[in-house]
Amino acid sequence: MDEKRKNELVSRTVAWLVDERRRTGGWMLPDGEPDASASFEEKWRAFRALVNTREPFPADPAFLAVQDELLRGMIADAGITPVDEIAPASADHRLSVWQGDITTLAADAIVNAANSGMTGCWQPLHSCIDNAIHTFAGVQLRLECARLMEAQGHPEPTAQAKVTGAYNLPARRVIHTVGPIAAGRPTGQHRRELAQCYRSCLDAAAAEGLHTVAFCCISTGVFGFPQHEAAQIAVKTVRAWLDAHPGADMRVVFNTFLDADRAIYQQLLG
Q: What is the sign, positive or negative, of the torsion defined by CA atoms of 153, 158, 162, 167?
């Protein structure tokens, strides 16, 4: 995307969000709205912080048009990776490991490690995957999730799955699941719940007729599930599900962000 256009779009979105926040109340930028001389990075951080803390109500179509152009342009600039360009594992062609930003992955579905509120991460600029997916999908995703939760009437239980639109992401759908909170000491119940997260997501994908699913590392971040054991559970569970559902014609990508996670999955997949 042209730098001038990108700067114009982020300036307009921030101005709109700041004006909305002044009218509706709530969290405001500690340092105020960036001025015209601010860098794109400063304005982008302001945009991200404001959408991270925005209540889930409908946005003006004019704002959405500008937001969508900005987000899709940024994702395109980062480089979109189609799943069919990712090499399959030598030991099992149904599985792959890919290191990169899941918001740039063009799959039928990407999996979001959500929390029980299911409306994304509300901490401004947090580095979790829930924050990144909601940021780059756009404010439409939080609204859809909030409507699902309002209809449900209670927090999302651990190890279930909900499918939503992906909006500005290159994926077609987002599958949200709440992993177990192991806090570094996983129990048998935590292990069973983590395995069920993978089964629930694959069941949901199959029900939607989706054939390529990219999993993030569920529960290994702030939820504290040890990385190696979590990966073992993931690979074992996914393989068992694929064996039991040959008609699903499913391709699964294990998406990693850290080098350590990539090495673990590469070892497990041979």
A: positive
Q: Give the confidence band of 27 by pLDDT, cuts at 50, 70, 90.
A: confident
Question: What is the full DSSP assignment across 27-81?
Answer: ---TT-S--TTS-HHHHHHHHHHHHHT--S-PPPHHHHHHHHHHHHHHHHHH--E
Q: Please, which pLDDT band fits residue 31 given cuts at 50, 70 and 90?
A: confident
Residue 107, pLDDT above cutoff 90: yes
CA distances from 205 to 111, 161, 200 (A): 10, 9, 9
Nearest-5° Cα angle at 249, 216 to 233: 35
C-alpha dist (Å) from residue 104 to 145, 222, 270: 21, 23, 25
Report the Cα 216 to chain-centroid distance in Å: 8
Domains of the chain: 3-77 (no CATH), 81-269 (3.40.220.10)
